[in-house]
Specification:
homodimer, alpha/beta, 8-stranded mixed sheet, 4-stranded antiparallel sheet
Chain lengths: ~400, ~400
């Protein structure tokens, strides 16, 4: 039939039983007459265990050696998965990142794929073998092993699909697909049949936890059709692709992201460029700022509030304290007990009533909005973390019920 | 000063503390002005754990995939050891087998090193880096990872020393060096300052458990000077080299090997070629036969006894039972409760009294000899396993005390 690239995450291969289960899925696809190339992550907690081992010895190990260490996680899973497929009686071969020709730049621990030399993979496919490739890893121009950082295995899979011109790239995970909201607490949430790359990008970056942004960006760039589905059942998943819709749905999904912290600089001198100074300082330290609000100054003082990822809070506060002589804030306040709730939909750009409807839903639920930010295809609000799930449900049911 | 190759086994790097200890030894050697190249084994039980993981999935996994899996064990230890050396503030780089240019033949799980392309290692040494190489593994002409089988890391170290023309190859293990007998039960045993390759070969194959034979053979072939020493203290070890002795010592060591089983074919037809048939049959199944005794036949029947490794006993018996129509033995007897006790020494070839003295020692200790075999530099006897340690002590004290 065609060429299918599949990706299985760490939970999908966490033990022998799961590995056998994945092997059966792969061989089912192969039996249908497809060429199959599979990218796999490290099993369950392997990567964390390896990081722990490293920390026991050296908290500040070089990234080059960390990559050498962490790459073993995927090498273990590809060989075990290949053994499982052998057991089922199918021809198979496992390939590490370098064997599969995954060439990256030289940024250890956060490498970018430059190209995939597909010669070896193609020759194995010509031999009718199922090809199992280690996700998350590649080789740089020094012949050193590199890893791709967060979301690396998804990126490996999409890069393989792009390089091999695969018909589809199936991302197997522990959820059924992309939902209109998190079904764990939003009982009316339902699965989307398809979603555009741009919408998926917003959902991914907003905490939908299904696909990593890098992989969606790459899929968009090379027009790789993605299918997000569960490795634990046979439900149809969600397709991520260039969706051509006659009438675009207003809102496609509602997300919640607890991984944010709010910082407020109160009583900052109201002079031009003050905000720029602050954000440039943070950017230089590699800290991404998300929502931003600046109060209207009175010519003397103003307040600047913004959010950062929770993991960046401490570093941000340290930086701001150190630069108090420049910033001259009366007070620096912060809180971790906030969540970002967002709606995403390509259709909302042409519909001015969306924001109002969202605020109405929150108002009806007596939820206070602390900050607001909008873009072409999303609207985000910051709320107290304790209200976040209720907020998602209220907004979801307002927009997406029926 | 020079170029030193060191090898550390799995117990020497089994946890973070041991890894740091090894790192200090390596940097001590480096601080003395040496170029240092280190071959490392997988930590402690890593290899066994990986084999266990494989067996859970597929008892008959292909050797190619087993090698892919097992090679991760050494990749983990080289990166951890490099991190430990980084922590001590020294320049270091870890290299997998393929990065280090270790090219093998295509026999997965039992590969032989064909050559080492030393370009990468030399360029790292030129940068004044300590080079940590994964032992036990290499790459074959298909760009596949291979492993060297038992004793692989010793072999890697010796091959590196030969290819780099190292001044010495230091094998660090958990014993101080090569002893005249096992000091755990032979209280008068003492450490040898040096020993010849040939003597070491006999001692290694007879259960001295210090160095694997393959590595000694390779060291002899390329005239690599070996130093066997402990990673846990600073005692001088034992040198294995071409020993030039004015007067060769009669006996250098006494060994005991419990890993043997005795099989007796009683009442076999006394026709020419019968023994040949039996041993050819075993050889074809990859079973090595060690000591052999054939009783003097009476023209009708004879007895053939021999020993095999304990792990081969079951397969041997099965094979013999199946071939009873050809062998026509009246009875096939076997026992695991036997040990092989041997004396080794390059000098004994010219001294006919050695065997007699050995038998006298055993007789004085009231130990019954079941089988005897001699070669140019060794004499082995088979005794009841319960008598083996007493036999070693008796022989040792007869030859080596003073």
């Amino acid at each position: 039939m065609g060429l299918v690239v599949q990706k299985y995450g760490g939970t999908s291969v966490r033990d022998a039983e799961r590995v056998m289960n994945v092997a059966r899925r792969i061989t089912d696809t192969y039996k249908q007459g497809n060429n199959v190339v599979v990218a796999v992550s490290a099993q369950g907690d392997t990567t964390d265990d390896l990081i722990e081992k490293a920390k026991e010895i050296n908290e500040n190990a070089s990234k080059r050696e960390m990559d050498m260490l962490l790459a073993t996680g995927e090498q273990i899973s590809i060989s075990l998965l290949a053994m499982a497929i052998e057991k089922l009686g199918f021809p198979v071969i496992s390939l590490t990142g370098w064997q599969a020709g995954v060439v990256t730049d030289t940024r250890y621990s956060a490498a970018r794929i430059k190209r995939i030399d597909t010669e070896r993979i193609r020759s194995e496919l010509d031999k009718k073998r199922i090809v199992i490739v280690a996700g998350f890893q590649g080789i740089n121009k020094y012949d050193d092993i590199t890893t791709l950082g967060r979301g690396g295995s998804d990126t490996s899979a999409v890069a393989l699909a792009a390089a091999l011109h695969a018909d589809v790239c199936e991302i197997y995970t522990d959820v059924d697909g992309v939902y209109t909201a998190d079904p764990r607490f939003c009982k009316n949430a339902y699965k989307l049949d398809d979603i555009s790359y741009d919408e998926m990008l917003e959902l991914a970056s907003l905490g939908a936890n299904v696909l990593h942004n890098r992989s969606v960006e790459m899929a968009k760039k090379y027009n790789v059709k993605l299918s997000v589905r569960s490795s634990l059942n046979n439900n149809e998943g969600t397709y991520v692709k260039e969706v051509e819709q006659v009438e675009k749905m207003l809102v496609r999904g509602v997300t919640r992201d607890n991984d944010c912290a709010r910082i407020a600089l109160c009583g900052v001198e109201d002079t031009p460029g003050k905000a720029f100074q602050v954000f440039q300082m943070l950017a230089k330290s590699g800290i991404s700022v998300d929502l931003i609000i600046q109060s209207i100054g009175n010519g003397v003082q103003k307040d600047i509030s913004f959010t950062v990822a929770e993991g960046d809070l401490e570093a941000s506060l340290k930086l701001l304290e150190e630069n108090q002589p420049v910033i001259k804030a009366n007070e620096i306040k912060w809180s971790k007990d906030v969540s970002k709730v967002s709606i995403v939909g390509a259709g909302m750009v042409n519909n001015s009533g969306v924001a109002a409807t969202m605020f109405e839903a929150l108002s009806d639920a007596h939820i206070n909005i602390k900050m607001i930010a909008t873009s072409e295809i999303k609207i985000s609000v910051l709320v107290d973390q304790k209200d976040a799930e209720r907020a998602v449900v209220a907004i979801h049911d307002k927009f997406l019920l029926n």
